[in-house]
User: Which sequence fits this backbone?
């Protein structure tokens, strides 16, 4: 059997069981003894352990799954769900940002505009993709493509997967904050339906910069947060090692976000996380995309824009005492 | 989001926390950190906290700032009753509601932003002025709601909108809800733009993180106070992530003027005159005699590469 690489710390019990399984399997081969009953027992135990681990994940453990190096990335979902993706490069102003890609594709036979934050699988790819951290040009390209989609009536589908916008000198000197801010305002006004899917990391303003949409979906183990658990721990607990506590306190997981109405639906992941069965994860996403795109297609532009405005207008809890 | 070192500010309740505000209130004098000039506190306050000779801008409280910016007696506060809640039941070393009570007590303010309507040279405006003394000006749902209402009030009353920013960014203790305030305020500005009403964003020390990445950089005109720290990511985060050395004057108003983000650097002492010029140009479309502020030359310090 194939053993998944990159086991996470909390998956250790699985690793132990898999070692046992392998040893036993080897033994049965060497001694030519039928141990199928024992093997089946261990396999069942592995499944039960996996089930147990994955139904009791802590918020911090889910963050680990969201960052898993084998996790399907945006373009994996595009490849699985769409046909004829034509990447359109560049912001027409400065450069092409490879951390944030976009282009046309066909979903269920209908043309859509894809905007996607893309991480790299290995070091070489990650250097090209800047570890999924877009610079101002990425956000400006995204806006260009969204405006193009609006012009030709294509729905916009964005894939969010970033630790955050790139915190660098050039990024600041070319005003990444302004690039994000403009996207927030323009996405709120975009005269075409839009759906965002948080596939892994929803890192703060860098995620929101392509996330102001009619509908927001999130994968079961993905997270969406105002600050990384490590960053929050460093500031409030004065120690990054308290990231698990911060992850808990920030309530950054899919189920909490659904409860807060920050996301509309949670895309279920196969047991053990999306990387254990990417095809199943993609199929679950497809069902929800079909449903939400269908619902949005029923609305005219005014209804769409009013509903989108109200969606964000309503987010945030505050106290309002009677005026004196 | 980034949290910068707090600038030293006097409490809104004068004399309630002498120790923390010793730079300003200890004794009768204050020393200018740039020129070393010694100024009488009374003179400094009378000069909107700007050191007369060096032009150094000390932080100023929201109410004092409004006094210097608008026609006397025209400011009417709105939404004073909107306050922070605790949607996440957030606890770190202290519970968030206890922190809020402490911020209220220490700053003498109800929230990190003060909103209302006023007139500037007779032109009605909707105004939101942030105050760093309350929780470092961090934007939570109450701040987002108050600023959104200020923008919507401008749309409703067909007046220009002015927002003065002073904020370390998003308020972590409200988690994802604080992030969503960026979307909410920016969406409201979309409607203001659609109504073709002027939005002036004024950036003061410091304007960083989520506030910079939403309404603060969406001004039709963006003004900044001299020396204001303005940026998205914190200098420490940038250094740690990229191992880059930061250029001199990085993330200052002067740096951003040179790099094309802001329209003008404006002294607090001239802000009202400058706003009058802009409001007349974009909103009333007619020149009416007023004190025209002097053109500020491009800062010499950054003019050369």
Assistant:
């Amino acid at each position: 059997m194939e053993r998944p690489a990159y086991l996470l710390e909390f998956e250790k019990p699985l690793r132990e069981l898999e070692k046992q399984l392998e040893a036993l399997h080897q033994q049965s081969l060497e001694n030519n003894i039928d141990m199928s009953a024992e093997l089946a027992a261990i396999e069942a135990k592995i499944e039960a352990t996996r089930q147990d681990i994955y139904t009791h994940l802590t918020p911090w453990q889910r963050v680990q799954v969201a960052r898993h190096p084998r996790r399907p990335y945006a373009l994996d979902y595009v490849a699985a769900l769409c046909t004829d993706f034509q990447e359109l490069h560049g912001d027409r102003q400065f450069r092409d940002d490879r951390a944030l890609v976009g282009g046309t594709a066909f979903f269920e036979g209908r043309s859509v505009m894809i905007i996607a934050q893309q991480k790299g699988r290995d070091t070489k790819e990650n250097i090209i993709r800047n570890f999924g951290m877009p610079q101002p040009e990425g956000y400006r390209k995204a806006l260009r493509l969204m405006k193009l989609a609006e012009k030709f009536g294509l729905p916009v589908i964005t894939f969010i997967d970033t630790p955050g916008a790139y915190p660098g000198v050039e990024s600041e000197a070319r005003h990444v904050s302004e690039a994000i801010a403009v996207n927030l305002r323009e996405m709120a006004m975009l005269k075409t339906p839009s759906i965002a899917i948080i596939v892994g990391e929803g890192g703060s303003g860098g995620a929101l910069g392509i996330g102001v949409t009619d509908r927001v979906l999130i994968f079961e183990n993905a997270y969406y947060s105002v600050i990384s658990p490590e960053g929050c721990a460093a500031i409030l607990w004065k120690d990054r090692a308290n990231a698990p506590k911060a992850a808990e306190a920030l309530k950054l997981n899919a189920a909490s976000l659904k409860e807060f109405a920050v996301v509309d639906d949670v895309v279920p992941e196969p047991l053990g996380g999306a990387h254990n069965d990417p095809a199943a994860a993609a199929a679950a996403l497809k069902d929800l995309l079909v449903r939400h795109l269908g619902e949005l297609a029923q609305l005219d532009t005014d209804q769409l824009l009013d509903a989108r405005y109200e969606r964000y207008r309503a987010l945030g809890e505050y106290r309002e005492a009677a005026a004196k | 989001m980034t949290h910068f070192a707090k600038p030293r500010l006097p409490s809104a309740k004068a004399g309630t926390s002498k120790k923390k505000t010793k730079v300003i209130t200890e004794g009768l004098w204050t020393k200018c950190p740039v020129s070393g000039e010694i100024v009488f506190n009374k003179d400094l306050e009378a000069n909107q906290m700007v050191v007369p000779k060096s032009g150094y801008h000390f932080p100023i409280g929201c109410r004092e700032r409004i006094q210097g910016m608008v026609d006397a007696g025209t400011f009417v506060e709105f939404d004073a009753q909107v306050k922070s809640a605790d949607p996440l039941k957030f606890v770190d070393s202290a519970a968030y509601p206890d922190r809020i009570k402490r911020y209220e007590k220490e700053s003498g303010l109800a929230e990190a932003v003060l909103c209302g309507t006023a007139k500037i040279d007779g032109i009605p405006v909707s105004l939101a002025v942030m105050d760093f003394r309350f929780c470092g000006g961090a934007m939570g749902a109450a701040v987002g709601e108050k600023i959104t209402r200020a923008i919507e009030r401008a749309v409703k009353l067909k007046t220009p909108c002015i927002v003065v920013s002073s904020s370390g960014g998003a308020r972590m203790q409200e988690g994802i809800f604080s992030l969503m305030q960026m979307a909410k305020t920016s969406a409201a500005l979309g409607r203001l733009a659609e109504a073709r009403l002027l939005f002036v964003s004024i950036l003061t020390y410091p304007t960083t993180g989520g506030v910079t990445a939403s309404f603060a950089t969406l001004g039709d005109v963006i003004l900044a106070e001299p020396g204001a720290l303005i940026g998205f990511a914190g200098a420490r985060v940038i250094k740690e992530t990229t191992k880059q050395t930061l250029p001199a004057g990085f993330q200052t108003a002067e740096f951003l003027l040179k790099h094309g983000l802001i329209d003008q650097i404006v002294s607090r002492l001239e802000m009202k005159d400058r706003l009058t010029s802009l409001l007349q140009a974009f909103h009333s479309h007619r020149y009416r005699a007023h004190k025209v502020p002097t053109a500020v030359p491009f800062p010499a310090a950054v003019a050369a590469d």
